[in-house]
Amino acid sequence: MRVNENILLSSLTTMRLGGPARYVVEIEKPEEIPDAYEFARQNQLPTFILGYGANAIGRDEGFTGVIIINRIRGISEISKTAESTVIQGDLYRSDSPADLHMETAGWQQIRHLIKIMGGEYWDDVVKFSCEKGFTGIEAMSKIPGLAGSAPVQNIGAYGQELADTFVELEAYDSITRKTVTLSKKDLHFAYRQSIFNTSEKNRYFIISITLGLLEGQMKRPFYNSLEKYIDAHSITDFSPMGIRKIVSVVRAEKLPDPLKIASSGSFFHNVYLTEAQAERALEQNIPVYQSKEGFKVNAAWLIESCGLKGKLISGFRVSAKAPLVLINESATSHNDLDKAKSEIVGKVYDKFGYWLEQEPVEIQ
Predict the structure, then answer these.
(1) Which of 111, 192, 244, 317 is catalytic?
(2) Can 266 be counted among the known catalytic residues?
(3) Distance separating alpha carbons of residues 326 and 256, to the nearest angstrom
(4) Taking a C-beta distance cutoff of 8 angstroms, is the pair 249, 169 a contact?
(5) Using one digit for the tens of pLDDT, what is the confidence trace for 222-241?
(6) Are 323 and 348 a contacting pair, CB within 8 Å?
(7) Residue 101 pLDDT more than 90?
(8) Active-site position among 215, 266, 317, 319
(9) Quick check: is 203 catalytic?
(10) Which CATH number does 2-70 carry?
């Protein structure tokens, strides 16, 4: 493993904020993981697991501990099976009728198990899947981050989320000091949530994840932004690679590349409501959407409705294309971010009575 000292968090995170980390350890092989944690224990220092840095915010005081970064790479198809995977017929269809048969519960298809090492770039995983013709993660193209970070936040986009295809993962448990296998039920997936960012923060170092992907393709209707692009360009290719191309263009038009423009992607969570709250919101002419997680109000709509779209606040620009995104144009401190966040959250609460919650985690 590689051990570096006094590395600025601003150089490790895409928001470009944060003072020095005492140590940064880069893991390239699974067998190095116990050594990294032993190094931290011997120096009596806390640890923080960092991936791509797109969903983490550095603080001005830095981190007086050990940042552990996953650099373990690799993607492989480990098996395929025609059993145990049944999905509703109105969600997917296949162009290969010989590979499926009708069941009363829906279509049953061949499932391909893909094992991905945690340090692999997520978008490379999606590309690999689409080139194979597998469906299940194509709508999550161009989400910045590493594969090992994907289960932490249960990433999702345009109607797909990691939990839909997740099978299991292998991780190092820093408490028991053993490598364990965790299944989907162990992770308690919810909207942008798992045990990794709730009850078991910073306990597990994710070595690899296994996904179960299908043959076939998504079926219309898609999310509005995708449908508008499809109609405007008369697109008929909805294969996994076709969807990947559509999503890549739509995302590029709205979301800045965090490697080129300092940001952390979506900075605020959407607001989820009970059915009674949703009814009251509709009475107030607030648009409410229903998803599998429940009723929600888009945080971007709330921010835009407060007249904040495109506004510069304490060095942060509220994106004119995607108001959920804060772009660091000239801010140099976490205090600047606190000021910008407070103004946005306060105005939304004053006008609508909803508290917006920050999505990126703080390194502390």
Answers:
(1) 192
(2) yes
(3) 10
(4) no
(5) 988 999 999 999 999 999 99
(6) no
(7) no
(8) 266
(9) no
(10) 3.30.43.10
For 244, which DSSP code? Answer: H
Fold designation for 75-253: 3.30.465
Closest CA to 301 of 255, 251, 256, 356: 356
Give pLDDT tens digits for 39-83.
999 999 999 999 999 999 999 999 999 999 999 999 999 877 654
Whole-model pTM over 0.70: yes
pLDDT-based confidence at 107, cuts 50/70/90? very low
Residue 192 annotated among the catalytic residues of the structure:
yes
Q: Which of 138, 161, 168, 359 is catalytic?
A: 359
Cα–Cα distances in Å, from 160 out to 81, 139, 169?
22, 6, 19
Domain formed by 257-362, architecture: Alpha-Beta Complex (3.90)
Among 80, 74, 71, residue whose Cα is nearest residue 27: 71
Contact 224, 217 (CB under 8 A): no
Angle between helices 224-233 and 240-254 (to 10 degrees): 110
User: Do 297 and 47 touch, CB atoms closer than 8 A?
Assistant: no
**Helices and strands, number each (H, E), in the chain:** 9, 26
Query: In the 8-state DSSP scheme, what is residue 270?
Result: P
- Show me where the domains of the chain are located: 2-70, 75-253, 257-362
Count of CB atoms situated within 10 Å of the CB of 155? 21
Q: Which pair of tokens denotes residue 331?
A: 């801010």
In DSSP notation, 46-107 reads -EEEESSSTTEE--TT-EEEEEEEE----EEEEEEESSS-EE-TTTEE-S-GGG-EEETTEE
